[in-house]
Amino acid sequence: MGRFWSLVFLLVPVLGVACFAFAPMYKIWLPKDISQHGPVIDHLFYFILWLTGVVFVITEVALFWFMWRYDSHGRSNPVKFTHGSHTLEIVWTIVPAAVLLFIAIYQMNAWAESKMRNPAAGPDGILGTADDIPALLEVTARQFEWRLRYPVPEEIRKQALGKDSQWDSTKDPIKDLFVVNELHLPVNEEIILDLKSADVLHSFFLPNARVKQDAVPGMKIPVWFRATDTGSYDLVCAELCGWGHYKMKGRLTVESREDFNKWLEERFREQMATQDTASTAKGE
Which residues contact 26 (CB under 8 A, 6 or more apart)? Predict the structure, then answer.
């Protein structure tokens, strides 16, 4: 009976290796990469996957061998107990610690690229100076939606509102576009956004852009990346944020700068028209 169960346990590494072999064919591990720093993150993911996969197979094969070799039904000699090996315990403590230290050092480039080299600092690399680059938009997570605020450039506001060249932008009451769950970005540009939370912990997750950042109440967190391919992709929350967590879905649309400006102008015009209608209904 013991050898039967050893064969059952042998199926675990066999099926595990099969998953490793066939997963890339069906694109199970990672979705399409559209981020400039995506290859670095993907390389780190697959490196850790193969490393842990090898350890997994060795462990499972050793488990099978011990169950097969020391099956009680096939042995007539009494069992002998041993206190253990102090040397072996030191070895299997030091080796995993060394591996984890290696991974911590190996991933520093990926971490620096996506979390430390903030392009908002501008050419001088120092935040808070005159050459800082402003964020393209502000993303506010709340239960259960993504609220996006785009500062609209003066030229686009002029076109959307039909102002003439003498228009005084300082008297324009609304300078921002507000949308929900509809993230539009220009392709092949360094995107900087400010991430906030209006209530609880959320996690801003763009799987295709390899971006995942927690939104923390009371904090404004910069997020940056460069999208290299146009299309429509998922925007989701990767942090259990309440009963409606499943509804917190949005869409990321990556398009050319011309199409992005056109979308910005059209949505801003719609927003102003809606505001004018509301003001008329109130008798203002």
Answer: none
Entry pTM: 0.79
Using CA atoms, how far apart are residues 42 and 279, in angstroms rounded to an integer? 51
pLDDT tens, position by position, 244-280:
999 999 999 999 999 999 999 999 888 887 765 655 5
Q: Do 38 and 110 belong to one domain?
A: yes
Number of domains making up the chain: 2
CATH of the domain at 233: 2.60.40.420
**Angle, helices 154-161/257-281, rounded to nearest 10 degrees:** 50
- Distance CA(258)–CA(163), nearest Å, equals 21
Structure-block tokens of residue 119 = 């392009």
State whether 96 and 145 are in the same domain.
Answer: no
Long-range contacts of 263-269 (CB under 8 A, 24+ apart): 263/184, 264/150, 264/152, 264/156, 264/177, 264/184, 265/156, 265/159, 265/160, 266/160, 267/177, 267/179, 268/152, 268/156, 268/157, 268/160, 268/177, 269/160, 269/161
Whether the per-residue pLDDT at 216 is higher than 90: the answer is yes
Greater pLDDT, 207 or 83: 207
Region of poorest pLDDT, from 34-38, 183-187, 237-241: 34-38
List the domain range (segments joined by +) for residue 29. 2-72+89-116
pLDDT of 74 > 70? The answer is no
